[in-house]
Amino acid sequence: MDTSCTKPSKKMPLSSWKLVLVLILFFAVYMMYVALQQYGVFSVTNLITVGALSKAPICHMPAVSHSDAPFFHFPKPVTYNRKECACTPVHFFAILSMQRSGSGWFETLLNSHPNISSNGEIFSVKPRRSNVTSITRTLNRLYNLDWYSSAAKNECTASIGLKWMLNQGLLQHHVEIADYFNQRGVSVIFLFRRNLLRQMVSILANAHDRAVKQLNGTHKAHVHSEAEAAVLAKFKPTINTTLLMSELRRADKMGREALKHFESTRHLLLYYEDLVSNHTKLMDVLDFLQLPRKKLSSRHVKIHTEPLANQIENWGEVYRALNGTPFESFVNGDYRR
After folding, report:
1. Where is the Sulfotransferase domain (predicted)?
2. In this model, does residue 316 exceed pLDDT 80?
């Protein structure tokens, strides 16, 4: 008998073949995830499981420039399914402003657009801004389209954001927030007021109404009728001229610091006075958010329409205090709507 014949090789067990196939499948899914992340389909801060990835639709970026691509996102809410809008790209934004700078009016204009959801002063609630972790958690929920407010457009939102006052933790945690904006591709809209004296009048009048509630015992920061506006406009504050310069410097410094802290972000600078006098500025905002141009409207009615001389009780003192200072333009170059 020929004993030189080799013995037949043993077949690999079925369980081993299954293990090899599982490893190959896992590697393929991982490579697909890396490729999609590089093309900007998923934000770098989103946590996506392998199982969820295999079920998610593959969304392609619209025809935008390479530099704009990081600002288009495809959120996957956990509280509902975007359905046919799953591949509608979403633009993230934040309106950075100060109290009584026209941000409420501006936000209602934006929300009149069918594709914009701006969700108000989310961080007016102190626990949400208590630390960076709380701020990040809140922003993640918002930009994941899981934030519900009267402005929510649900499935087909194409631009989502919030209104954020500078004194609501924004400057305190500016380093971390600016990093978050850059990592998540959040566009910043600065909305300031050139005439800080008018802003002060509005702040004092609003504080007065909060205390006395002039409209049938109800405080209203914004009104929707000329009659209501006329009632609130009757109050003429007396301004402390001893503190006037320091208060104006403080407000001016706050705005300048915000511009400096967030200069690395994709941003647009707006002034309330320009929006009032030139409504084409609103189209610049829609272009900035890369949304179709549409006529925007608001029910807000301006409260203080008179010259400042008719709205400040001690106008003569205020005029003399500011004349010849860096802020004299506030009294010499007054405007009317």
Report:
1. 95-293
2. yes
Provide the b/e sequence for 37-68 (b: ≥16 CB within 10 Å).
Answer: eeebbbbeebeeeeeeeeeeeebeeeeeeeee
- Residue 33: is its pLDDT beyond 60? no
The token pair that represents 163 in the structure block: 């209104």
Alpha-carbon distance of 150 to 111, in angstroms, equals 10
Give the 3-state secondary structure of residue 282: helix
CA-closest candidate to residue 168, choices 258, 264, 289: 258
Which residue type does 125 have?
Answer: V
The answer to whether the beta carbons of residues 296 and 112 sit under 8 Å apart is: yes
Q: What is the pLDDT of residues 35-58, one digit of tens each?
A: 544 444 333 333 333 333 335 567
Sign of the CA dihedral with 151 first, then 188, 197, and 99 last: positive
Bridge partners, 191 (sequence order): 97, 270
Q: Which of 238, 148, 153, 245 is nearest to 196 (CA)?
A: 245
Work out the pLDDT band at 332, boundaries 50, 70, 90. confident
CA 56/CA 53 separation, integer angstroms: 5
Angle between helices 226-233 and 196-212 in degrees, nearest 10: 100
- What is the average pLDDT value for the chain, to the nearest integer? 87
CA-wise closest residue to 74 among 144, 19, 1, 177: 144
In the predicted model, is pLDDT for residue 8 greater than 80?
Answer: no
Q: Give CA–CA dist 222/159, Å, rounded.
A: 24
Please count the residues of the chain: 337
Rounded to whole angstroms, the Cα distance separating 221 from 55 reads: 47
Residue written as token pair 């896992």: 26
Residue with tokens 């639709």: 57
Output the pLDDT for position 93: 98
267 neighbors 188 (Cβ within 8 angstroms): yes
Q: Quick check: helix, strand or coil at residue 62?
A: coil
Count of CB atoms situated within 10 Å of the CB of 254:
15
